[in-house]
Write a structure and sequence with these properties.
2 copies of one chain form a homodimer.
Chain A lengths: L1 H28 L6 H8 L3 H7 L3 H26 L3 H18 L1 H9 L13 H14 L8 H20 L8 H12 L2
Helix pairs in contact in A: 1-2, 1-4, 2-3, 4-5, 4-6, 4-7, 5-6, 5-7, 5-8, 7-8, 8-9
The structure holds a DNA duplex (30 and 30 nucleotides).
DNA sequence: TCCAGAAAGCTAGCGGTGCTAGGAACGAGG
DNA sequence: CCTCGTTCCTAGCACCGCTAGCTTTCTGGA
């Protein structure tokens, strides 16, 4: 009974360890450096152990993505609630979003850029993802007017995503990122 | 003299063949299916021949991307010039942009999503890329007002890119793509 | 206390990847 | 005709994600 409990606890801890090590490795050297061999070495187990926890590398990345969603949602929430008034909340959320992408690029990529078959646009999507999207919705609510709010949020989200993705991929110069973000915000505030 | 000329011509033709076959293979089965072995098989030469033309797989993808830029630029130009008036050109260009991404996903990916160290935000960028961006600029010109036109175009481009990327990556449901595009356009027309 | 059986984790290997070293075959010029 | 350069291929390297099958370790009952 207690022995089995200990085993399950240890197993859960190891699973958590895999996720955090994968995340650290990705943030330190990029996802192309995250191989099952290196991951196994870091957690000090052999490769096949990874497959007793996850179906494959993609599942590990998906697990990291789910964790990342929670971090993002929390940062967006803090930014929005710390804003002095509802009207300026959108700017705060937008800035927090791009800051997250800048500061945690590997985390951002695994959530939004790499293909990790997570359910997204469905109720089965991770709760944290819905929470993050909800922060965008709340930020936009004061400026929605006659507009369909979810659709407005999706479009604004897409614009933010385009900005950070093109900037990170060196398609846009980092130089005037702030001005572009400000310009975008001006187009979405009432 | 003429013999050498023939050889150079044949070599150029083979290089062109590599690019077109890589493009076809990518469009048919996705970039993950484009391996140097399969590519070599399709052009009926051995693998190392590829490396006598290109530095590596990345260089082949970059070459495909450059070709793709020309196609995109031409499609955007046609859409803009076919628009009944300058005011509606932006909608036409935006629709052409997303249609291109939808119709030629592999081409779109290699230009804008995958990392293929092409120079982008510099004068060294492919001329066709500047041309494509120029079409966006022209579409936006009537609606720029006091706004900085290049910055406006970059931001609009980012928004379009976000829409098509999230939709293609199944992060946004394809369902209301048109409504999102229309909403975006409404935010950028004067 | 001892032993059978299960659970856990390892070694080794498969088929694939991008890429390259070294040699064979072919054509051109003396 | 022979030599030399070029062109191209065979074979192989180190790595990838993933898995079959064995060894070790531990557990629970006699």
């Amino acid at each position: 009974m207690t022995i089995q409990a200990r085993r399950e606890r240890e197993r859960a801890e190891r699973e958590k360890l895999i996720i955090t090590v994968a995340c650290e490795l990705a943030e330190a050297e990029g996802w192309e450096a995250v191989t099952t061999r290196r991951l196994a070495e870091r957690i000090e187990y052999s490769q096949p152990v990874l497959y007793s926890h996850f179906k494959g590398k993609g599942a590990i990345m998906a697990a990291v993505a789910v964790e990342g969603c929670a971090v993002l949602a929390e940062e967006l929430r803090e930014a929005r609630t710390a804003a002095p008034d509802a009207g300026s909340a959108l700017a705060a959320v937008g800035a927090a979003y791009t800051a997250f992408a800048e500061r945690r690029p590997a985390l951002y990529d695994v959530i939004f850029n790499l293909s990790v078959d997570l359910p997204f646009a469905t109720p089965q999507a991770p709760a944290a993802l819905h929470a993050a999207f909800g922060e965008l919705v709340e930020g936009l609510r004061p400026h929605a007017g006659e507009e369909d709010l979810p659709l407005l949020a999706e479009t604004f989200w897409a614009a933010l995503h385009g900005l950070v993705t093109l900037t990170r991929g060196k398609r846009l110069p980092r130089e005037h990122h702030d001005r572009r973000l400000e310009l975008l915000l001006r187009r979405f505030v009432a």
